[in-house]
Structure formats: structure tokens, C-alpha cells
Amino acid sequence: MGPITLCFVMNLSSYSSEPYLDKILSIEVRIDDLLTRMTLEEKIGQMTQIDIAAITKASGIDETGEKKKTVELDEAKFIDLIERYKVGNFVNGDAVDHDKWATYIKRLQELTLEHSRLQIPIIYGMDHIHGANNVYGATMFPQSINMAATFDPVHTENEAKSIGIECAHLGHAWIYSPVLGLGKNPFWPRFFETYGEDPHLASVLADRFVHTLQENPQTRPYKQAACAKHFLGYSDPRSGWDRTPAMIPDQQLYEFFVPAFQAAIDAGVKTVMINSAEINGIPVHASHDILTELLRSKLGFKGVAMTDWGDIERLYTWHHTAPTVKEAVFQAVTAGIDVSLTPHDPQFADLLKELVNEGRISQERIDLSVQRILRLKMELGLFDDARFPIAGEPDEKTRAKYQQKSKEATLDSIVLLKNEGILPIKPGRKILVVGEFAKTRRALCGGWTYVWFARSDKPFPKEMQTLYSALQDEFGTDSVDYATLENFDQKSQDADLILSVISSEPYAELLGNFTDQVLHGVHAEIAQKVMDSGIANVTVVIEGRPLLVTDIFDATDAFIWAGLPGYYGGGAIAQVLSGKWNPNGKLPFSYPAYPLHFSPYNRKWMETLVYHEDINPRISLADFGSGLSYSQFEYSDLELSTKQIAEDEKLVAKIRVKNTGPFVGKETIMWFLKDDFASITRPIRELAHFEKTELEVNESKVFEFVIEPRKHLTFPDKTGDVLLEKGTFTLMVGDLETSFTLN
Ligand code: BGC
């Protein structure tokens, strides 16, 4: 390197001119330089991640039983971790405003500069899972299950952009999102964090989120890393409860659970968080097969693999695959972990050091992880221009733009599942609302909103509408009243229509492990009263996973699944009810009808058998992809460019879709495929392609799906090898179907 460059470097890196701090050099050269300077302790410190509760003044337990996550730095605690343990990663914090976040993380970086030998910046991780949900004032988006219901990746793109502009500059460089476990188990409490039950839909959204978040030019020089979580099979615990064992055959893992992660990896996702539980008897944190053979060798992941909350220690305390915590560290690091979210003490660092000194874990193994972590930090610019956060919020115009984007996503996410001519509600009708959650903000947002999950509306801004206040705005205060169980009989006498709001308190993770998903107590009693009243009624379910309401569904005149629509949810539901908005959301999962039976839409043929109408009359309450509009869409002229194709050829399928209803409306054109006869039983249909469009009244358009055999007609065997078998295939779109042959 010539003298001119050196001069330039000195100017840019005022605090030092060591090669690893020289941003003009390649990242690999910088990493090599830094690695040779680092002691074992410094390396292990990079592999250690500590929760905010260990470095802040707030002590004690919050309302949920967790250690408080208040953003009030205790410098002495932080300096101790930096000096003694060289800790390189920190995480979490309940919502505070932009400037407070910037000041806090800037101080962490300053103290790291002052108190560490090599001045390696820390990286800060945050659970921003539906917008920047831990920054006060930031735009919040609907939860992922609703984002999936929109069937529109543009909304996911806007969400990722909004996260970037709200908090990349605050030092929130590592975003623990997206959740890519498939929402296949509707009893799992983290269902709402998923993109639903279909691997194709989840893959499309995963790709869009990761690309947008990681490559957003609007946030430069600040950048963010996404974290695809929780690898792998976390979302389908056999018991339905969080962090309990899953039994998933390898073929099913490859077919259903791998694709969304593969899409994220192909999109360049920089980090992955591991499943806290076990699959087929092996805790994932201890599985070399999953963390190294599958994740890295087969799927091609090159980034940082982090543990989930305290999960190394849990190999000892929960899973009992390790007889000591030290053995647990050995198992997890050998399996392929790079970063341990400890979360509160650095015991991991001590034990890992002992293991290296005893020769049980090699220096090379440590270097491999440390290189990945340093690469992450360098790629994010943390060694350079992005080291120190800056205060500030998006300007008013930008904020307003993303608030509008979030409102649009929310509107598109509301799913109308039944309408017996009662919706939209005609003006002037007297609406009686029942259901206490209609008057809360927290029920619309669910967990991971300002805090882990709120036990009251205290953390929520006053400007946020509840469903009840939104209804009053939409229909007029005089037209909307509210009844409790006690005064229902009296108030319902004046009502033209009852709006029954079924919902629950927010929850997160293990604290959402319910014993059933039916209504109890006052909620059940009032629902019964509505059914018995004989008054026209509409049911709105606001819940992150399907509550079992089959009797209510059958009895009600209209049924809306609103999921967890978030900050703008009240207004969106009200607009669907009034008809100001024509609903177009589609269920991203199959809504179960019974407590002991669940079958996703991409079920096997055997699962479709109804043996006896009186015993098991339906397979589901509504399948994946269900959702009505106030318009009707007619599908016609399904055409194939050929009826016979070879492996390396393409087939173009076309369909005409016409809006025959009275309103402008959006429709999602979903193309499903079925391999008619195959060596491994195939789903009765699988989503292969989708496209959302808006059609004017009487407008019709032709839509295309180009079928490529190696992309659309294959399926994996139990080793993950892809099979393409000759024979006939059925193609389904709308209510039409046709078939073709692969020769
Ligand atoms: C959750 C993760 C989350 C982490 C950090 C864990 O309990 O399972 O999804 O990212 O905490 O807050």
C-alpha cells in the first residue's frame, strides 16, 4: 500500500492505524490481522453474548417473571464484563425512545474503546419482529402471521425498510428476525411469529425480508443483519407447547421446514438462531448433524450461528445430554455454535477457555467462530463509520410514509371467512360490541410489543386506537355501544347488530402454553348469549393462533379472522366492517375445527377421508388460502402451452380472472400443484406460485405461471436429495384444474 493511502487511512481511523482498523483493506485481510493479535480470552469474549439485565441499573423481576430490561446503563457492570471477559455481544431492552437508545449504545461503544486492548466494537441484538417494536414512536407493523395473510411481499419489504430507517443508526445492528419456523402447529404459542404453514409463502417472504433489511441503502453507513430463527423444527412441538420435543421425519424436515431457511440463506442471511428444543431425541444445540452437516455443508450457510436464550446451559439443566455445564459447552461448540446468548453471566467464557486449555476444543475451532463474528461486525461497518450510533428519528414525511405502508399492510391482512349477506354493515345500524378486549390496545398487538408481552395497556401510546374507539370513529359514537355480561340482556334490546370480539391477553414463548384453545368463563358465557339472542351478529377473532370456535363460526352471520393486526388493527377492522375497505386477506394456515384434530392444507390424501359425517364432519374450519371479498372473482380459460413436457422444458399456464362483483377488489391468484403418483406420498396440493392483483369492477386480466420441472415438480427424499419423477401432475387455480405429463 502506498503512502497516499496510508495518509487517508490515518484520517479516517483517528483512534488507530492498525491494519484491522483500516477500512480500505479487504475484510479478510483485516480479520487475519486482528485474529493474530487476539488472546484466547479476547476470542472467547467475541463468542459470548450478555443480556441487558446484566449491565443495567434496574434490578429485579418484571411482571412476566423475567429480569427487568430497563435501558439504564450501569457502567461499572459493563466495564467489568469488558475488562474481565472481553464480551463482544449484548442484547435486548424494553422500548425507549430513539435518542435514549442511541445514547446508551454509543456509550457502550465508547467504554469498549476505553476499556479494551484491541477496541473491537460490540454488536447489539434486538427482537424487532413486527417493525421496530422496541423503539418508542417507531412505526409498528402487524405480526408476521398477518404479514403472511396479505400474500403480498411488498408489505414485508416495507416492514424491513421501516425497521432500518427507525433503528439502524441507533446501534441496533443485529435484528432477531425473521422467524422461519413453519406455522404448522396452531397450538404452538409462537404461531403468530411465523409466516404460516406453507413453505413456499414463507420462503418468498423470508427472501424479501432478508434482502431488504440487509441491503437497505437508506440506512447507510449503518447496516443491519437479519437472523433467521429458530433453526430447525422448533415450530412443530408434539405437545403444542413451546420448547418441547418435536418428532419430525427427515423427509418432512427437508420438504417443509428447510425451504424457508434455504431461501433466507440464499438471500444472504448473515446470522441464524438455533431451536431451543429437540428434534427426534437430539437437542438441536448439540446436533452436529443439524448445525454443521445440514446448515453449513448442505444448505451453504456461512454466517454466525447463535444459541437461543441460555440454551447451552440447558443441555445440562433441561435436556440432560450433558452431565455438567462444561460438557454442555463442549457439545454445543463442537456441534457448531458460534455465539452463546448466555444470557446473564459469562460462565460460558470460563468453561470454553478451560476446554481449549485442556485440548478438548482446538484453537482452530475457536478461530472459525471468531472469524465469522468479526466478519459480521466488519461487514456491518461497526469497525468503521457505523461504530457510534447517532440520535434522531426519521423525518415526519418518511415516518408518515411508513405509517401509511403499515396501515395498508394491516388492511390487506384482515381475513373475512364467512359473510351471510350482513357485511358491510349498513349505515345507521345500532352496533352493540361485546368482548372486553375490544377496549384494549395490547390485544391487537400481541407479544413483543414495547415489552416481552404487556399485562396492561400502560406501555401503549394513547393515540393508538382500540377496536372500540375505531368503531366509534367509523360509525359514529351514537351508533356504537358496549355491553358486559351483566347488562347484555338490557342493552341488546336496542341493538340491530352485535359485534362479538373474541381475543385474549398477549403472551410470548413458554408463557403462552395454554391448556386448551376454547373459550372459558365470561368469554364463553357472553358468546353463548350472543348466539342465543337471535340478533344478527358478526364475530371478530383477534388472536395470534386459532382459537377453537367452531360452534360460534357456524352460528354467527359473519366471521373475521384479524390475527394480531397491530397498531393500526382497530381502524382496519372497522373499515372492513363498514365496507370502506374491501377485505382481501387470505388465511396463511388451516384453521382447525376441533381440539384434537389438526390437518394442514397440504395434507396427504388419507387425511381427507371423512369416515362418518356425524363423527368427523369436517377436516378444518377453513383451509389455508381461504378468504372472502365483497366482490366476486371468476376464473376462466385455464390454458396450458403444452400437455407434455420434458425435464428441461417449460410449460406456461394461463388463467383469466375477472372481478364480477360490485366493488374494486384485490385477489390473490394461487397456483397449486399435485404430483398424481409418486414414490413418496405427496400432498393433495401444494402452493407453487402466487400473485396478488387489484381488479376494477368488470375488469379481467390474464395471469401466467411458468412451470419449470426442476423447480416446481420435485420433492426431497429423506437425505434431502431431490427427486423428479415422470408421470401426470394436476394444476389447480381458483376452482379450475387441469393436468399435464412430465415425460
Ligand atoms: C427467544 C428468541 C429471542 C431471544 C432474545 C428467546 O427467548 O426464543 O426468539 O430472539 O429470546 O430475546
Please tell me about this protein's structure.
There is one protein chain. The protein is an alpha/beta fold. It has 22 helices and 26 strands. The protein has an eight-stranded parallel beta sheet with strand order 9-6-5-4-3-2-1-10. Strand 14, helix 19 and strand 15 form a beta-alpha-beta unit. The chain is globular and about 75 Å long. Bound molecules: beta-D-glucopyranose. Beta-D-glucopyranose is lined by residues 91-92, 127, 176, 229, 308-309, 509.
Strand content: 15-25%
The main sheet orders its strands as 9-6-5-4-3-2-1-10
Task: Give the uncertain stretches in residue-range form.
Answer: 1-15
Could you tell me the mean pLDDT? 95
Assembly category: single chain
Put simply, the count of helices is 22
Question: How large, in whole angstroms, is the Cα Rg?
Answer: 27 Å
Helix content: 25-40%
Number of strands: 26
Spatial shape: globular
Question: What ligand species are in this complex?
Answer: beta-D-glucopyranose
Sheet/helix structural class: alpha/beta
Q: How far is it from the N-terminal to the C-terminal residue, by CA?
A: 60 Å
Task: Describe the sheet with the most strands.
Answer: 8 strands, parallel
List keywords for this structure.
disordered N terminus, 26 strands, 17% strand, 743 residues, binds beta-D-glucopyranose, six-stranded mixed beta sheet, eight-stranded parallel beta sheet, alpha/beta, globular
